[in-house]
From TrEMBL:
Bacterial sugar transferase domain span: 10-194
Name listed for the protein in its UniProt record: Lipopolysaccharide/colanic/teichoic acid biosynthesis glycosyltransferase
Keywords for the protein's UniProt record, in alphabetical order: Membrane, Transferase, Transmembrane, Transmembrane helix
Membrane spanning stretches: 12-39
Keyword check for Nucleotide-binding: no
PANTHER family named among the record's database cross-references: COLANIC BIOSYNTHESIS UDP-GLUCOSE LIPID CARRIER TRANSFERASE, UNDECAPRENYL-PHOSPHATE N-ACETYLGALACTOSAMINYL 1-PHOSPHATE TRANSFERASE-RELATED
Length: 197
């Protein structure tokens, strides 16, 4: 896992990049929030409790993409997704408000995606090392499963497939990331996320 010096380096990088980018995205974020409010009929800013570093709860922010709040059921997501919301989710622009989460220290640019209660907080044994990491906007598992929704829709039992195949693989990928961390690799993951693989 990351040493204290590595954690400090990672935090300085996160803050520097976030402060550099925020001035360029604040206007688009406000515009997206307004559109999301109009098309969903609800507050365009969606928030949800997620599991963070050390298993602590924190509030994650996104731009609302669904007319009804069910971000866990893959079939409900497709049914309740607006056209604008679908575009936001495909482009990952719905996650821009998470720059605030990075700014205040709840998240990092790169790390495991923050899960709802019932996953990361239930890890056992050595897998609990994952909780030493701050959740990230992107990361190795996020890139590998960038089309996770489509993959799950092909399964006869999406929840079982997620719990027995995808989730264990994500844990493995993220622990491997932490054990071989470098700032250069973080930059590579961010670049791949923005410009594609």
């Amino acid at each position: 896992m990351l040493t204290k010096k590595q954690q400090l380096t990672k935090r300085i990088f996160d803050l520097s990049l976030t402060l550099l980018i925020i001035p360029f995205v604040i206007i688009p974020v406000l515009l997206f929030l307004l559109i999301a409010t109009v098309v969903t009929g609800k507050n365009g800013l969606f928030s949800q409790i997620r599991i963070g570093q050390f298993g602590k709860y924190f509030r994650l922010y996104k731009i609302r993409s669904l007319k009804k709040e069910n971000h866990e059921d893959i079939f409900a997501i497709r049914k309740n997704e607006t056209v604008f919301g679908s575009w936001l989710r495909r482009s990952k622009l719905d996650e821009l408000p998470q720059l605030w989460n990075v700014l205040v220290g709840d998240m990092s640019w790169v790390g495991p995606r923050p899960d709802v209660p019932g996953y990361a907080d239930m890890l056992k044994g050595n897998d609990r090392e994952l909780l030493l990491l701050k959740p990230g906007i992107t990361g190795p598992a996020t890139l590998k499963y960038k089309n996770e929704d489509k993959l799950l829709l092909k399964q006869p039992n999406p929840t079982e497939y997620n719990d027995t195949v995808i989730w264990p693989d994500k844990v493995r990928l993220n622990i491997a990331y932490a054990e071989d961390w470098s700032i250069i690799k973080d930059v590579v993951y961010i670049v791949k996320s923005v410009f594609g693989n």
